[in-house]
Write a structure and sequence with these properties.
alpha+beta, four-stranded mixed sheet, 8 helices, about 65% helix
Length: about 290
């Protein structure tokens, strides 16, 4: 069964005072493309996470976001005392050189570059956070796949509905096709007789038959009908056969449109032309829908 490229999956958890949240979004794309957003301390996991996404998701535009929040005192920024003392000494030197007293605002001092520094954990960040991130990633991917499968079932029903419409219209064209030659012969004979009667000339039946034979050869659409029916069967088989059918379905719809255009150009019949308009409209809807099939 086909699956959609559109989906969303998330997972969250907490361990040792750190809260983790993973979000994965996917949209349709001809290829596999990822955007991975990680906190700096675990940015080294990007290649590993991309491999996990590529292995689980065939194609699509994938956005992976990891958010981490530390809810312990370890999250507090550290005051760099040597840097703070250096700033104070410089302020005192200004007092000595220019005289007067300088009012010191500790809050302003803490905002100076280098005074407050992000806490550094001496342990390996990936070793510390990796197991939790990997577990949440697997869970988020599973939820994303569930949504893509659910959307795929809806796509499947819609695609087969349009394919059924094409099959019905094609059956009507096949029933109409044998009468096209007969109608052309009647119109051509009547028109020829009308023109020749004015000129008091005659045309042989053999010449008329030759003209009709040429038209019949030119207007024969039986092969195109069979090829279009074959493409419809291949389209349905691809929809039922596997998850990663998007590119194949896209190719088949292009071939279906090619056959429909050929029928339209050869048939030279108003009734068939109306059916072809319906078929081409359904094929266009198929082409639009399969762009979202993985």
């Amino acid at each position: 069964m086909i699956v959609s490229m559109t989906g969303f999956g998330d997972a969250s958890g907490e361990k040792d005072g750190t809260h983790y949240a993973v979000e994965i979004r996917s949209l349709n794309n001809r290829f596999f493309k990822t955007v991975i957003k990680l906190p700096d301390n675990v940015s080294g996991m990007e290649p590993e996470l991309e491999s996990a996404l590529r292995e689980s998701l065939g194609r699509g535009s994938i956005t992976y976001i990891l958010k981490m929040r530390v809810e312990t005192s370890e999250a507090a920024y550290l005051v760099n005392l040597p840097a703070l003392r250096s700033y104070l000494r410089q302020l005192q030197n200004l007092e000595d050189e220019f005289g007067g007293q300088t009012r010191i605002d500790l809050g302003a001092l803490l905002a100076l570059p280098g005074v407050c520094q992000e806490p550094r954990d001496e342990t390996d960040e990936i070793e510390k956070h990796g197991p939790m991130i990997r577990d949440l990633t697997r869970r988020a991917i599973a939820r994303l796949q569930e949504m893509r499968a659910r959307e795929g079932r809806l796509l499947f029903d819609d695609l087969l509905r349009h394919a059924a419409q094409i099959r019905d219209d094609l059956a009507e064209i096949e029933r109409r096709a044998p009468f096209v030659i007969e109608d052309y012969f009647k119109r051509f004979q009547a028109r020829t007789n009308q023109l020749l009667s004015k000129a008091e000339l005659e045309v042989s039946q053999q010449d008329l038959l030759k003209e009709i034979a040429v038209f019949a050869e030119r207007a024969d659409i039986s092969e195109e009908i069979q090829r279009l029916r074959s493409h419809l069967e291949g389209f349905e088989q691809a929809c039922r056969g596997g998850e990663h059918a998007g590119r194949k379905l896209d190719f088949i719809t292009q071939e279906m449109l090619r056959e429909a255009n050929t029928i339209a150009s050869k048939a030279n019949d108003a009734a068939i032309a109306r059916r072809i308009v319906e078929i081409k409209g359904a094929i266009d809807r198929l082409k639009e829908q399969v762009q979202n099939v993985e």
